[in-house]
């Protein structure tokens, strides 16, 4: 995209937000860093998203630069930024790095991004962000009780919600099942790497979901990640009691959920030094 087209687009989406707070959502994934301004009332992108490849290795300095490159396409025309990260994030500090460079362990991510972008930044786990988007605008909208989002991709991400409130940083992808880290057997990456048939892979996912169901008894599983686009191939093979639905926001859920969290953090005061999205602020509409 040329700079001029970017500026024109920025102008258009800024008009659409009127005088409301403008928010940029950025999703750091295994292969791409993607971002776009978001209409947090509708849960929709306000402009075509911009993507750059995730740097390899995905060390802190390189990823911060990739995020800055994405943000630069939208010309600073935003007040706050929400950013997803594929690991645990407490108080803006990244605490785990299962599928990214180990330099992220204990990195002050929110501060680093905020210093580089010159705006307030909220950072949260990628599955939490995707779940926030689904609960606020998608498959989990208007659902009460305990809802669980699971994303099947490079790893397995989890997000838990009680009555529209996020219980942050659950890591149910790393449950131990039959002596293995569950995501090493049941993530979509395992299906690809072991060249599993849909039936074989679905059998593993079924055992995994049955175990999570036994532990938590959620009212609904929302299934996200790339495999949710092919839900008809494998979802009918999963015979558990809990209802399951594929995610509806697909590729944009991370961007939209991150922006929603940045909005919430910008609106409500910290509670005893804890950001609102980690302190039980409602994320559903
Ligand atoms: C990480 C989670 C992440 C998930 C999906 C797991 O390996 O531990 O934090 O949400 O992958 O990216």
UniProtKB/TrEMBL annotation:
Coiled-coil positions are: none
The keyword Kinase belongs to this UniProt entry's keyword annotation: yes
Pfam families in alphabetical order = ROK
Query: Where is the chain membrane-spanning?
Result: none
Return one GO MF term: polyphosphate-glucose phosphotransferase activity
The top EC class is: transferase
**Could you tell me the EC number(s) of this protein?**
2.7.1.63
The protein's superkingdom reads Bacteria
Arranged from A to Z, the UniProt key words for this protein are: Kinase, Transferase
Q: Which family does it belong to?
A: Belongs to the ROK (NagC/XylR) family.
PANTHER family in UniProt? POLYPHOSPHATE GLUCOKINASE (PTHR18964:SF146), ROK (REPRESSOR, ORF, KINASE) FAMILY (PTHR18964)
Identification of the protein by name? Polyphosphate glucokinase
Species the sequence originates in: Paractinoplanes abujensis
């Amino acid at each position: 995209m040329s700079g001029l087209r970017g500026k024109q687009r920025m102008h258009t989406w800024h008009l659409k937000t009127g005088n409301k707070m403008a928010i940029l959502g950025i999703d750091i994934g295994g292969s791409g860093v993607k971002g776009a301004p978001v209409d947090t009332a509708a849960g929709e992108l306000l402009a075509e998203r911009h993507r750059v490849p995730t740097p390899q290795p995905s060390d802190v300095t390189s990823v911060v630069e990739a995020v800055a490159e994405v943000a630069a396409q939208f010309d600073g025309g935003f007040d706050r930024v929400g950013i997803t990260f594929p690991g645990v994030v407490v108080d803006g500090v990244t605490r785990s790095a299962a599928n990214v460079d180990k330099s992220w362990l204990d990195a002050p991510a929110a501060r680093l991004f905020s210093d580089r972008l010159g705006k307030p930044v909220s950072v949260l786990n990628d599955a939490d962000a995707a779940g926030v988007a689904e609960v606020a605008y998608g498959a989990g909208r208007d659902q009460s009780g305990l809802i669980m989002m699971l994303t099947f991709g490079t790893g397995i991400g989890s997000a838990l919600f009680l009555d529209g409130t996020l219980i942050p940083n659950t890591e149910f992808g790393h449950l131990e099942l039959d002596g293995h880290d569950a995501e090493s057997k049941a993530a979509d990456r395992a299906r690809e790497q072991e060249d599993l048939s849909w039936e074989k892979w679905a059998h593993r996912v079924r055992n995994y979901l049955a175990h999570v169901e036994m532990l938590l008894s959620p009212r609904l599983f929302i299934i996200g990640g790339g495999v949710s686009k092919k839900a008809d191939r494998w979802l009918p093979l999963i015979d558990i009691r809990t209802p399951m639905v594929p995610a509806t926001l697909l590729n944009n859920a991370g961007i939209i959920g991150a922006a929603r969290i940045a909005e919430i953090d910008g609106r409500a005061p910290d509670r005893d030094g804890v950001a609102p999205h980690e302190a039980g602020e409602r994320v559903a509409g």
